[in-house]
Design a protein that fits this description.
The chain folds into three domains: 159 residues, Rossmann fold, CATH 3.40.50.720; 167 residues, Dihydrodipicolinate Reductase, domain 2 (2-Layer Sandwich); 65 residues, Alpha-Beta Plaits (2-Layer Sandwich), CATH 3.30.70. 37% of the residues lie in helices and 26% in strands. The protein starts with a strand and ends with a strand. The protein is elongated. The longest helix has 17 residues. 47% of the residues are buried. The strands form four sheets. Strands 7, 9, 10, 11, 12, 13, 16, 17, 18 and 20 form a ten-stranded mixed beta sheet that branches. Strand 4, helix 4 and strand 5 form a beta-alpha-beta unit. By secondary structure, it is of the alpha/beta class. It has 14 helices and 20 strands. Bound molecules: L-homoserine.
């Protein structure tokens, strides 16, 4: 019997309890793990809930209970989630979390503490919602060097972009729906400004390259500046879709990571990843491209990933190793965005001639009502920035610049 305590009875915490209770028999049959929920920590009471009697308001009830094997941290936010996770690991309890903020900010320290105490710190649900991606990165792909990772990592923004492009929805309405469906963060600014995706890409980069970069140290653009016109022009040019992409790659011995909206060509498997779904494309040197796809947010998909970690611990509980291995990235480990090379989409307030004065490396172009949208051949970020400056010097306003994947 494996006793589990759940910290936080919100969307993910209550989903975790639901998955364990509803699928107890399936879990037992398939894995032999007999999971029992022993405590649930929350500030609130839940009268009428089948888990009502398990609720405590005191973390000490959990930390001092020697029978608790695994603590599921589903509180969200940095504190006290980090503090409780650290205390649980130090008390010799395994910790499972969906909290990408804590993993991205304190993951190195928590992994070290876990190792010292012979327990595991697992976070399958922190990236890609219900999609298995963390454990595959740690084990199934370990025999590959990772050439790059590009992922649609935020369900809320993908839902909003899909509603806007397919159903003509307004941004604010689509965001409200994403909140109602339980996809968005407590403060949805972190979804729409790309911070949530930034936390996820640094976690994936740490698994791929062994260094955890602070999400504050990477370039991060959200979707708030994407105009419906950009979506239309991109589609008209060659069927491109626009998605918020977290990207990481090795540039020499440095790691380049950033989050930005990108134009996705039709041939790219991320092109049709819509709605709340996430897609993560991992370029491996031996396997080639591997695509991970599934629901990136929501109660039961995320809880499914949480419980997969609980089961992993339950069936390997005799193993001491098995947590991720990385160290914090130094400044020297991080490549600047100016090194990144890709094609660029521009939309300018001007005609084709205005475009030609500055850019002569055009692949696609449409012009309508005094605005011209075009896609260049690949160039460095630094060169694209110079083009923006040259347009400004010529008196041509750049309305949008979006990188092509
Ligand atoms: N707010 C996040 C998203 C939840 O929309 O992807 C899952 O991490």
């Amino acid at each position: 019997m494996i006793n589990v305590a759940i910290l936080g009875f919100g969307v993910v915490g209550s989903g975790t309890a639901e998955v364990i209770e509803k699928n107890k028999d399936v879990i037992k049959t398939k894995t032999g793990a007999d999971l029992v929920i022993k405590h649930i920590l929350d500030l609130r009471d839940f009268p009428g809930s089948p888990f009502e009697k398990l609720v405590t308001h005191d973390f000490n009830d959990i930390i001092n209970d020697k029978e608790v094997d695994i603590v599921v941290e589903a509180m969200g936010g940095a504190h006290p989630a980090y503090d409780f996770s650290k205390a649980a690991l130090e008390a010799g309890k395994h910790v499972v979390t969906s909290n990408k903020l804590v993993v991205a900010q304190f993951g190195t320290e928590l992994l070290e503490i876990a190792e010292k105490n012979g327990v595991r710190y697992l976070f399958e649900a922190s990236v890609g919602g219900g999609i298995p991606i963390i454990k595959p990165m740690m084990s199934d792909l370990a025999q590959n060097r990772i050439d790059g990772i590009s992922g649609i990592l935020n369900g809320t923004t993908n839902y909003i972009l899909t509603q806007m492009s397919e159903n003509g929805a307004e941004f604010a309405d689509a965001l409200k729906e994403a909140q109602t469906k339980g996809y968005a963060e407590a403060d949805p600014t972190s979804d729409i400004e790309g911070h949530d995706a930034a936390r996820k890409i640094v976690i994936l980069a740490a698994l791929a390259y062994g260094k955890l970069i602070s999400p504050d140290d990477i370039h991060c653009e959200g979707i708030t500046k994407i105009d419906a016109k950009d979506v239309k022009f991109a589609e008209e040019m060659d069927g491109y879709s626009i998605k918020l992409i977290g990207h990481a790659e090795k540039v020499g011995d440095k790691i380049l990571a950033f989050v930005a909206p990108r134009l996705i060509p039709t041939a790219n498997p991320l092109h049709d990843v819509s709605d709340v779904f996430n897609g993560i494309l991992v370029n491996c040197d031996m396997l080639g491209d591997a695509m991970f796809y599934g629901r990136g947010a929501g109660k039961l998909p995320t809880a499914s990933a949480v419980v997969s970690d609980v089961i992993d611990i339950a069936i390997k509980s005799e193993m001491k190793a098995g947590s991720a291995k990385w160290t914090d990235a130094a400044d020297d480990d991080i490549a600047p965005l100016s090194d990144h090379v890709c094609a660029h989409y521009f939309r300018i307030a001007g005609c084709v001639k205005c475009m030609e004065k500055v850019c002569d490396n055009i692949v696609h172009c449409v012009s309508e009502n005094g605005e011209t949208a075009f896609i260049t051949k690949p160039m460095t970020e630094a060169e694209a920035f110079e083009k923006e400056k040259a347009f400004a010097e010529n008196g041509t306003k750049v309305l949008s610049r979006i990188r092509v994947l």
